Predict the 3D structure of the following.
Amino acid sequence: MNQSALKNQSAIKNDYQGTPSFYNSQEVFERFLAGTSYYLGLQNAVSRLVSLIKPKNMLELGFGTGATACRLASEHPHVRIDAIDARANMVPTGEEQAQLRQLDNVRFAQGDLLDYVAENNHLPDFVYMLYVFHHIPDPSDKKIEFLKTCRDKLPAGGHLCIADVFIPETPNKTELESRLLQNWSMRVMEAYSSVFWTALDDVSPEAVARAQQAGRYSMKQEQEAGDLVIRREKEYMVSTAWLVEQAEALGFTVVVNEPVNTVGDSVVLLRNGS
Ligand SMILES: C[S@@+](CC[C@H](N)C(=O)[O-])C[C@H]1O[C@@H](n2cnc3c(N)ncnc32)[C@H](O)[C@@H]1O
């Protein structure tokens, strides 16, 4: 790993605010999450839903570097997007990306997502979160409270789109741990292989070595995330079955509940009302 990536890695640790923050700098983000098949798969799915639903206004909860908000703002120029993230230092990162792409339909602000939905009387017609629902900490009542608030504040027919990594549904904790370990070993390999091919920009031995290095870096990040998932430390994943059950009990209609790959990522699209 080069000096600047190492520097970023240590800045990331210092900057940590309640979520694994390998997304803190644009450089690290591009080396890891942005090149993975699973992140791109979720982004593609959300963009597809936006094309089909055609909302006028959208809200992203937990925008990270702003990559998804900027992609959606660019692909759907008639939609206005507000995006919030708990970390104030991500606001300039998002704004810079929007400026580089000359986007005037996306705004970034700092805010806690639970406070934001509680304090705003009306939410826009399409609210989405990508790799963020699992950051709402245990106990699970907090997630239920969040869903309930969204239901109360979304317009009738409005949508909440939860694109995330989910845990398998198992009868007990031991089986869950074993299935998670199995799934995560595939995810780690998927991190390596997808990032290798995204990073490969030449076939010289140096370029191949650089792509391998990027792949190994991503693999390591994913391994660390997997450890946190198993310990339920800072990563509070649920199963899609649990989410759907809660959402239906609150009166949401489950429009879509589909995987985007075999390594745990799915999209659950909920509509307020029938
Ligand atoms: C995996 S990143 C999100 C990636 C981003 N959605 C994307 O598509 O590129 C998780 C983000 O959620 C944010 N986050 C975690 N808890 C939050 C909260 N309670 N309120 C707002 N943002 C939160 C973190 O600061 C972090 O930037």
